[in-house]
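ugh ok fine here u go
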Amino acid sequence: TGRDWEKSQLVNLASDYVSGGKWINYEPEYYELKRKVFGQHIAAPLAVNLVRQHLRNDDPPKALVLSFHGVTGIGKTFLAKHLAKGIYKQYRDTETSSFVHYIAGSTHNRAASAATKLMELMRIIDKGISTCERSFFIIDEVDKYPAGFMDVLIPYLEQPVTIDGKAYNSRKAIFILLS
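structure:
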């Protein structure tokens, strides 16, 4: 199938509280990843398998969290974005999607207080999960976030959340932490 998505792989997200006929691939293939990622022969296949297993579980016990660490230029962001492209057709085609959220720790309003940064992180996650429980969050430079970052993130990882009076299964989300 390569880049073509078979109908059996595509699922209408209406059942995941998304309107507008957006599509998600619950059985992503990563043919291009094998050709484009070098020197990560352990990390890339492991990440792909973990993402696939998480997508196959309709009620996962926790959100999937992958943490990629290393020096600049080794492909952490490339791998994270490529994983998202395998799942979200619109993101693959346009590199934009209301289901994929890229959040940068240090470049996001450097003058803001720690509380403001953490509130903004909560706002982005709340908005993402209320749009699609299967949202994909790439949080870059997590090492630059203020103390309390994990206190904000952990509730989304372990239990359903209530946003504006409506319960969402945030455990279906995928979080990629980069540092």
